[in-house]
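## retry 2 of 3
previous attempt timed out at serialization; input unchanged, resubmitting
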Amino acid sequence: MQDNFNIQKLRNDYLKKIITENEIVKLIISILEVSNTPQLVIEALELIEELSLKNRSIYELLEDLLISEENPMIRSVVAKMIIKFYLKEAVSPLKWTIQNEKSSIVFKSIFEALNNSEIQLIQTLKKELLHSIFGVQEEEITFFLDLESIHEELSVEKIDFFKKYRSEDISQVLKGKALYAVKNGHVVALNLFGWETDFESILSYNYQKFRKATSNIKSLPRSIALLKQLEHLDLSNFDALETLPHEIGNLTNLRILKLRNCTFLKYLPQSVGNLEKLEVLDLSNSFYLETIPDTIGKLVNLRELILGSNLGYVMLRNLPNTIGDLKRLEVLKLKSCSKLTKIPESIGRLTRLKILNLSHCINLKELPDSINKIKSLEIIWDEPIETEKLSSNDF
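## retry succeeded, writing output
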């Protein structure tokens, strides 16, 4: 209480001209140098900002705090003050921070302060800051920042998270050992199952911890359309995900789209038909998905279409007639589609189809005659339903 009173007293004495600017600066510097109370330090810093107190001694103290202070909340306040009051002097300490900062709290403060400035120097620093963390072009970084905004708070170590789980090797993303892969400054593979948690818990199959971490993500930012070079997108295990943005159709280089175990995914946007390079579409265990858009027939390179479930019955009611346009389709899995009552006659045009899994489609009584046109087709009618919890393969 005495500490708080002293700060308030300093403010009042200065405003009443009981003490001079030099005197209050010396007193505040003394507090900042000796205090071990974070809240008192923050209040002293806020008083400097409120009263617009600026001189060389204050700047040198702020610079020292930015580099050496352990508390990220204090560093975040200091960073904003340095950008606000000491633009010319700020270049060196900010560059150092950009290269060494590990706290998302500090990063967020710096980014917001830089974002409010139109000065070219500051914009250059912002670009350097973003690239050092994400490693991709500025436009594509927007997606990551928008994804962050879904959550109220950033984890303190999220900066290291981005740096640690970024890779130049696509296979690391496909194996679940990296969040995203970058090639020539572009995101080419993205596996979001590690979002808002640590990959160690995923790699050790801490399923319960992962479920808690992803339970509030119901949609993706529309800015995903900015990842124009994206080839692999894995959104598996986001059981709260209900929709995909229409802009998903802008990812025209996408070859693999995995939505496994997206339990509450209700529909796919018509724009998925724009993904003409898509080769694999995995929607297994999307229990509430009732229909597939007719635009799916435009996916002329699709080789695998995986619907249905290994864990129970799903709500899929029908397949569009356009499914017959998937001339390169080799695998079609409809396991446990209990609401499915018929297969379109157009399926006979899938001359490359090798596997058709109709296991546990309990209301499917017959197949169209056209299916006899497909040579070397294996039809699976009976297969056990798995009742155990998701295995490591579901990650």
